[in-house]
Design goal:
alpha+beta, five-stranded antiparallel β-sheet, four-stranded mixed β-sheet, 4 helices, 9 strands
Length: 191
């Protein structure tokens, strides 16, 4: 299953753009949280769930809204278009970001990011790559099979050993495309 993208241009004034590959600033994070809070009720009422909202720089800023269907079915291009139109209307009214930007509504795909606590619980049994914002026992990158969440820690089996990674320290996490993950997706599509 491929990632689906639907790009939607949002009008606004031009401004200088940050360099490619920059990390979101505190102001960006605040704006992204505000955007997510604003659009989430409508997105959920439409039968979708927001996976992640991200702002990327470069020559032109892109506001990415990654969403999935709440019924567990695969996202279609029509789903992305429907969400793009609804989100664009909200953003036109709210105008949460200065300058112009591109709105990108996408599906998470099979090798999806793991952003929320429930993602780590839902995908227990699957392999993931996890990066921490600061080292744990001298290590920031981990790859292993998710066990689930206990308290405020994600439990992962890494090289035969169980490791507990603090949820608050996870800067990025993503499922690894494996035969098991593909088989699970095929079973979901048949149901």
């Amino acid at each position: 299953m491929a990632h689906l993208y639907c790009l939607w241009a949002c009008a606004g004034e031009s401004r200088s753009r940050p360099k490619r590959g920059r990390t979101n600033t505190t102001a960006d994070v605040s704006a992204l949280e505000r955007i997510e809070r604003t659009i989430a009720p409508s997105v959920e009422a439409m039968g979708y769930e927001i996976v992640r909202v991200r702002l990327s720089g470069g020559h032109r800023q892109t506001l990415q809204v990654m969403a999935e269907r709440r019924d567990g079915q695969a996202m279609s291009v029509d789903d992305c278009v429907e969400l793009s139109r609804a989100i664009s209307a909200f953003l036109d009214v709210e105008d949460p970001l200065p300058g112009s930007y591109l709105l990108e509504v996408s599906s998470p795909g099979l090798d999806r990011p793991l952003v929320r606590r429930q993602h780590f619980e839902r995908f227990a049994g699957h392999e993931a790559r996890i990066e921490l914002s600061h080292p744990l026992d001298g290590r920031r990158r981990f790859r292993g099979r998710l066990i689930g969440v206990e308290g405020e820690d994600v439990r992962v089996v890494v090289e035969g050993q169980e490791v507990k990674l603090p949820l608050e320290a996870i800067s990025s996490a993503k499922l690894v495309l494996t035969d098991d993950l593909l088989a699970a997706a095929q079973r979901r599509e048949r149901t």
